């Protein structure tokens, strides 16, 4: 194999890399260079505009001495865990129910999916009313005769974050449903038939055979929903604006207000770095195992 | 025997009734916010401020819809959402096409033309999906300023394309992994080049995932507010920014009926996309997107 | 070659941007006035500017009490493309001026004698050192009580003279089936009441010590605890549906008699007037009760950014002149519900509440009771003022002891330093 490669051969060798190059370049700049910039700002004394000096970890100390940040971090975990669990659960149930040769499947599917299409800038207002004890569900139920019924979570600092989970599940579970439904459609019907012949009941078949087969769908849903959970911003702003009494602050809203409302750009950058590190701690092991698997699978 | 058969049929009936019951109940719950929005948009402002937030309008009026579309004031410019709606279209179409096209090429390279470090590159791109965008606003603004693109729709297209690549690459890479390598190898032996294989083999096979990618990107970009408000101004704003200006009143009185009508107008394109393309969406996901 | 692509894009982009513009010079004005009445008031300025031959390019960014606008502005400055002019509130103008991006308006000031017409307490917010950097257009008073006259009559109560009386009156209102106080749970709405309490209970001097100078002793004093104690009592006057309620909805509750009072700035007045209610007959407007009455003000002003185009600079001069013009100040404020920033204008055709505000201001200027409203950024700088919002909002919706609130205040302020 000592034959010298011609220019066009060599170009052909390099072509894939050349095609990737622009994407890689913009990602390196738009993601990693900007992360580095944010990291630098988090070590500076920046307040209103970027300052390129160095104050060590001062902004991080300041950040962790802020009670609001502790609330925000706790909320992120509460919100993400509940949001993922409930959305996946509801989405899976909807998908399984929809997969039973349902008439009007198309219409129902559209109903479950439509929330994803709406911007929260305003659906937040609708939710705010629905959850308000004096206007929404509580009032309607009380009006129907059940007068001791209380549903005032949105007014309770300890429970308000759960109302955000409710609205977020409403928005995203249709999307999870679509992915699960797709997974179910990809499973051969003969699997179910064979199990039925052996006398297994339908719920059992789903629990022990079908659902485990949906592993890839679970992975996709988890990635996409984590993305939504971490980016959760509009929803909180529209529904509670971080209230009552900062009880529903999340890292993204904290970062926004530190940088753009409180003249604490350094603290904002520090909170961004903390968020990125958290994401990295979760995503990198996942990426590593996924990619290693695909390499092994060659 | 006959009674046993009958009870089986009955339990089957009960099962079906349970399934339909649950589905319809869920649908009703899902429609509740939409119901609130529609009824509110059909009420007069006096009725709403009189204390009627939820419930049927006493007198139906479409005034709010007309106002939201062509008269509502965004600052001192009382043009309604119309011009901004057009801005959004001018932004979303190229941004979706560009990011999907680039994602397709990337997915193709990362699966069929693996080079050393391809996995690392993919990992780097994928991590970008999870970047909190609040953190990149200022450096991005500086870059756009240097490119002379600040405050313009082309600038916004660029930003959405850059951050859209992450997800589209993920979609296409995971889809193309499922296409057997033998197919491309055979074509290579037949003398087909890099682009030839892409356009004549991969792209036609990629139709389902293209639908998924387009729907996802369309929704994300159309509904984006953060980039829109940071990188455009005044007349070049996308519809979400205009919507925010209609809705997000601090010291003035809120016009809830116009707000709701405006929100639904702003959501119309994505709603149409979901309703019309929803079927292809599930089909596209079935065809391979979920094969992690 | 390297610069061709961006240049090409830029030129096509500027072509798109230039299309709707007419031949006249356009001045881009960034503001967060997106409510209908606010925009109507702003149109007074816009038309006056047009009369001088300059166009008004509107860049409204609403929401987050101007937070979204601040975000947009920072992006614009980072990209080296600031708007021509901008509406400022609180320290914003001074802070940006300190960053060196604002231009001064000294020549115009000297030629027109503006400074003499502006209340001296306002000057620190429009002057950076010796430079005038912003033109104030209006002044709102924040510490008003708006009350439903019929509800007051029904409960047999009159305008309260102290907070203790106000709280007692609340109980009487409740007895006749009226919600004593209408409000929402947004931090700034709670803060409006807090600001009033600090000045009304502690007096103007204490207000300055605690909210402006952020003196730790004042912040942790018994007076401050008393303020929180009273705030706790005020919480008892509010119904439980106050979550996420807009202030205008709260005003609506006072208008239709569902609630007795609202504590809110004079932008609420428009709600009452729009319903045809008459001050003194249908509704009452009085300052929050105190033995040491104060005038808690906030102003909106227009500042100008440094630009390279001399034509735009001329347009900026024109805007400053328009804003400070007596007629614009008069017409603008008639619509906006505030009073002119200039203290030398007649207000004969304003409503009774505005006239009262105008008189109160003259008295307050005399006896040092002009206080910048902390809620709207006219006391301490945003990193501190927002701490008050945090603590007060948390206190209001939780079962927090006054001591703990005071403690949180002190440590929060300390951390933000």
TrEMBL record, chain A:
<feature type="domain" description="ABC transmembrane type-1">
    <location>
        <begin position="73"/>
        <end position="288"/>
    </location>
</feature>
<feature type="transmembrane region" description="Helical">
    <location>
        <begin position="76"/>
        <end position="98"/>
    </location>
</feature>
<dbReference type="GO" id="GO:0005886">
    <property type="term" value="C:plasma membrane"/>
</dbReference>
<keyword id="KW-1133">Transmembrane helix</keyword>
<keyword id="KW-0472">Membrane</keyword>
<dbReference type="GO" id="GO:0055085">
    <property type="term" value="P:transmembrane transport"/>
</dbReference>
<feature type="transmembrane region" description="Helical">
    <location>
        <begin position="265"/>
        <end position="288"/>
    </location>
</feature>
<dbReference type="Pfam" id="PF00528">
    <property type="entry name" value="BPD_transp_1"/>
</dbReference>
<dbReference type="InterPro" id="IPR035906">
    <property type="entry name" value="MetI-like_sf"/>
</dbReference>
<feature type="transmembrane region" description="Helical">
    <location>
        <begin position="205"/>
        <end position="230"/>
    </location>
</feature>
<feature type="transmembrane region" description="Helical">
    <location>
        <begin position="21"/>
        <end position="43"/>
    </location>
</feature>
<keyword id="KW-0812">Transmembrane</keyword>
<keyword id="KW-0813">Transport</keyword>
<feature type="transmembrane region" description="Helical">
    <location>
        <begin position="110"/>
        <end position="130"/>
    </location>
</feature>
<keyword id="KW-1003">Cell membrane</keyword>
From TrEMBL, chain B:
<feature type="transmembrane region" description="Helical">
    <location>
        <begin position="17"/>
        <end position="38"/>
    </location>
</feature>
<feature type="transmembrane region" description="Helical">
    <location>
        <begin position="153"/>
        <end position="172"/>
    </location>
</feature>
<feature type="domain" description="ABC transmembrane type-1">
    <location>
        <begin position="85"/>
        <end position="277"/>
    </location>
</feature>
<feature type="transmembrane region" description="Helical">
    <location>
        <begin position="193"/>
        <end position="218"/>
    </location>
</feature>
<protein>
    <submittedName>
        <fullName>Carbohydrate ABC transporter membrane protein 2, CUT1 family</fullName>
    </submittedName>
</protein>
<feature type="transmembrane region" description="Helical">
    <location>
        <begin position="89"/>
        <end position="108"/>
    </location>
</feature>
<dbReference type="InterPro" id="IPR035906">
    <property type="entry name" value="MetI-like_sf"/>
</dbReference>
<dbReference type="InterPro" id="IPR000515">
    <property type="entry name" value="MetI-like"/>
</dbReference>
<keyword id="KW-0812">Transmembrane</keyword>
<dbReference type="GO" id="GO:0055085">
    <property type="term" value="P:transmembrane transport"/>
</dbReference>
<dbReference type="GO" id="GO:0005886">
    <property type="term" value="C:plasma membrane"/>
</dbReference>
<feature type="transmembrane region" description="Helical">
    <location>
        <begin position="260"/>
        <end position="282"/>
    </location>
</feature>
<keyword id="KW-1133">Transmembrane helix</keyword>
<feature type="transmembrane region" description="Helical">
    <location>
        <begin position="120"/>
        <end position="141"/>
    </location>
</feature>
<comment type="similarity">
    <text>Belongs to the binding-protein-dependent transport system permease family.</text>
</comment>
Automatic annotation (TrEMBL), chain C:
<protein>
    <recommendedName>
        <fullName>Probable sugar-binding periplasmic protein</fullName>
    </recommendedName>
</protein>
<keyword id="KW-0732">Signal</keyword>
<comment type="function">
    <text>Part of a binding-protein-dependent transport system for a sugar.</text>
</comment>
<dbReference type="GO" id="GO:0042597">
    <property type="term" value="C:periplasmic space"/>
</dbReference>
<comment type="similarity">
    <text>Belongs to the bacterial solute-binding protein 1 family.</text>
</comment>
<dbReference type="Pfam" id="PF01547">
    <property type="entry name" value="SBP_bac_1"/>
</dbReference>
<keyword id="KW-0813">Transport</keyword>
<dbReference type="InterPro" id="IPR050490">
    <property type="entry name" value="Bact_solute-bd_prot1"/>
</dbReference>
<dbReference type="InterPro" id="IPR006059">
    <property type="entry name" value="SBP"/>
</dbReference>
<feature type="signal peptide">
    <location>
        <begin position="1"/>
        <end position="23"/>
    </location>
</feature>
